[in-house]
Amino acid sequence: SHIRHAWDPTKSVAHNLAEMGLAEDPNKAVPILKRSALGTEAGSSGWEQRKKIVRKPYVVNEMEYEASLPEKKSNTLSRDLIDYVRYMIQNHGENYKEMARDEKNYYQDTPKQIKRKINVYKNFYPEEYKDFIASLKQEKMDVQ
Q: Where do transmembrane segments lie in this chain (predicted)?
């Protein structure tokens, strides 16, 4: 978005990027120099780097700032997976073999895969899991 706002449609791609301090071709921006047999850089005397005037340095600065921000972790599970796990716990408790044979086990998960999914649910939503287990215990006490 930073590049889009600083872009001038009347200028070429190379000219726009040069004004922002960005490189059009990374091979030209940081050239790899070949070394001769003596260990000196070939063409170092004749090779000169053109200095380009950066007229829009704020673009690079904004991009660097944005890249330095910590990434937000989005620990969420799909609603289908949450419903699946709750259904299995509600109907089978901790019996993973029964869960594997359940008709709602559409993807034919093994007992280990189901256990792993339940553990992921426990780790992502610990409070919700505790409340769910407490409500199940309350229902069992009310029935008895």
A: none
How far apart (Å, rounded) are the C-alpha atoms in residues 111 and 92?
12
Amino acid at 33: L
Residues 6+ apart with CB under 8 A from 120: 77
| Six-digit token string for 82 | 């949450």
3-state secondary structure of 125: coil
Range with the largest mean pLDDT of 57-61, 108-112, 132-136, 139-143 = 108-112
How far, rounded to the nearest angstrom, does the alpha carbon of residue 27 sit from its chain's CA centroid?
28
DSSP 3-state of 66: helix
Between CA 28 and CA 36, with CA 34 as vertex, the angle to 5 degrees is 155
- pLDDT at residue 27 tops 60: yes
Cβ proximity of 117 and 123 under 8 Å: no
Q: How far is CA 61 from the centre of its chain?
A: 23
Give the separation between CA 7 and CA 14, rounded to whole angstroms.
Answer: 11
CB atoms within 10 A of CB 54: 14
